[in-house]
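User: I'm putting together notes for a lab meeting next week and I want to include a structural view of one of the chains we've been expressing. I don't have a solved structure, so I'd like a prediction I can at least talk through. The sequence is below, exactly as it appears in our construct file.
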Amino acid sequence: MTSARDKNPGRAAVAVRDPWSVPILVAQIPATGLHRTLAASPEECGRLASTAGINSVSDLRAEFTLSPGRSDTVRLEGRVTGQVGQTCVVSLEPMHSDIDEVVELLFAPPEQVARLSALSEETEADAERPDPPEPIENGVIDLGRVASDALFLGIDPYPRKPDAVLELPAETVDPEDHPFAALKALKVGGKPPDQ
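Assistant: Thanks for the context. Below is the predicted structure for the 195-residue chain, given as structure tokens.
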């Protein structure tokens, strides 16, 4: 999964408060792994909707399993589900869409991210190239941020109701009203129409 922040590089330059934050200390993840179930509060859903520029976010839930790996890496697997309210691009009516995103990420200490990213780029073109690891920032993985990114990536940028049809007004076209009407009049020896 590519981070939603990667799609908007200008966002990194501005200190933005995450609309949903659930930090987990990497040092407290047991060797057997850690499972967390999260549910965003109505206030957090409101902030997420505002950040995404949509009408609403509701029933946002995330289930994550974190497993420690080699070289202080952490594998995160899970699912983010919820519902978003948007405006149909065809009918301009409000509509709701379900979000169901699978999340698989590898986190690594910042000093290892570049090395692991280079290894993933060396993967043969025929093989599916894994996403580069996400950095572990100050010994913390923010599960709320991961869930927010999955939500943002799952939002349809052009939502359309299944039954929405674009109906353009019928125009009657005068066959003499086109750019070459004046040339046609000159060719047949007439005068061009008045402009």
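A couple of points you could mention at the meeting. The longest helix spans residues 110-121. Strands lie at 23-25, 34-39, 56-68, 74-87, 94-108, 134-135, 140-142.

User: Perfect, that's what I needed.
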